[in-house]
Amino acid sequence: MANINAKFGLRPIGKLGSASNSTGTTEYDILTGTTGSIFTGDPVKMVNTGGIAVAAAGDLLLGVFQGCRYTDSAGDVIYSSHWPTTTASADAVAFVVDDPNAYLKYKVLLQVVWYKQLSV
Fold first, then answer.
1. Average pLDDT in the 47-52 region?
2. How far out from the chain centre does Cα 36 lie?
3. Nearest to 98, CA basis, from 40, 31, 12
4. How many degrees, rounded to 5, is the angle at CA 106 between CA 111 and CA 93?
5. Which residue, among 40, 13, 36, has the nearest Cα to 95 in the 3D structure?
6. How far apart are CA 17 and CA 105, in angstroms?
7. What's the rounded Cα separation, in Å, for the pair 6 and 27?
8. Verdict on whether the full-model pTM lies above 0.90
């Protein structure tokens, strides 16, 4: 298998302590009219109206999006790894890892930061 060096979102990989690592999720509503797609690994926040949205810098993090379930316009129940921005469903729920003891790993752009040692 090839080494994939692509960036990815947050991935739950373990749990603090001796409890079993089920990487359990909690269901949260995705409200109709939620703007922006949400992908597996995206950090999410709770919005004032009771649903979730993608978190931005400075937002209080609720957890990590792991997928969703909704009923499409044909009446079929859909399980998906992402929430498309154009989807409208009254019963949409997101599966979010919100355990404060979860260990997460992530890959982002590699940036070199130079530090200057201070003289004492």
1. 87
2. 13
3. 12
4. 135
5. 40
6. 17
7. 28
8. no
